[in-house]
Amino acid sequence: MKLKLLIALLFLSGHIFAKEIAKFAISFDNEVLDAPVSISLDGINYNNDTGQLMLFEVTSKGNQFVLSQIEFGHTTRLWFLASGLTLANTSRKYVLEIKEDNLELGGHQIIKLNKKHQDLQLVIDEKPILSYRFGVTYPPEDINPLYRKSGFIHPLWSPGGEVLTRIQPSDHYHHYGIWGPWTKTHIDDREVDFWNLAKGEGTVNFAEFISTTEGAVFSGFKALQHHLDFGVKGEDQVALNEVLDIRAWNVGDKFRVIDYTSSLTCPLENGILFDAYRYGGGIGFRATEKWHKDNCTLLTSEGKERVEADGSLARWCLVEGESETPQGRSGILFLSHPSNRMHPEPMRVWPPTIRQGRGDLFFEFTPIRYEDWKLERHQSYVLKYRLIVFDGEMSRQVAEKLWNAFAYHPVIEFKVTKKDH
After folding, report:
1. What is the DSSP letter of 147?
2. What domain range is 16 assigned to?
3. Vertex 63, ends 61 and 68: CA angle to 5°?
4. Measured between alpha carbons, how far is 389 from 7 in angstroms, rounded to an integer?
5. Is the pTM of this model over 0.90?
């Protein structure tokens, strides 16, 4: 209500002082749902204008204010959400204006970053979304200390507050919520395992935060993670530099939208080889201990369920299970980007017979499952994933629309408004 009142005041008082600087239209070839969209501002001399850059969608009910956020960089971009359903081959029109007074537009919730002890937490409306552990987590006292680790996501919460991840389960102390170490690798003629920590060959740890961002449209952080090789003479060597880019989109309370982007570079003279194997890299997920074969399900974009999903290829994978939310069920839709290596990506999915038939859930996109991957020195390699976290159930039709919003860029028709001389 507060936001609507401020927007109304804007039109009644301040809007007459606004100056249109550009207009544009977007359209998609497929139906999309709640799509993050960006436009380049490089063709607009917005730096010389005083006032606030504001975005409006042109609708049959008049121009409607749209939250937007500038991301500065080599190319400066304006981000916003094409909220709700956008039908295929339909145009949505927008106007970009500079508002020349200093009216603050508030009343909306933003995703905040809270640093607490050893965790960086993303929170909206006092509800946690996820925690990134940058401090070292140690195993229980009687367990091998090689299992200690930093640089992973746990907990991951559903919108209703259900914790969906698990760390250090007694059957696999090296499992850490949501994470993505590489398993069978070769550095020159040595094999190095960054996943199975008890082997003492390597690990992946947090090094430093590169940046943090809070905004009306998205908030998040970039963390440098070191893949450490223990098998060299002298000090441990950094075999891989990974920039983990976590971005949570402000889509409201219906679900959470979280981008998980891993950028890899190898500083070693001869690079590193990721051997083909059923585990390794991508994005791995160890589910809450509440889930077992009788109360959780898995479905892939190709229609495969848990019994047959392991080793198959998919654009997305939907996992759901019993929860204590009012809906009684929560889940995560994992999306793989078309630019990823081996897309549609191979998966590792634990069979329902695992753990003496209890059927705990483990899922991973594994881009090296069937083919080796050589990373050359100082070359950059990127893997992109998106997580849709929700309560209740999700249909495969909704999953497809959400994947479309991740996979496809809109067609943008952009026009800079001519200035009066």
Report:
1. G
2. 2-108
3. 135
4. 30
5. yes
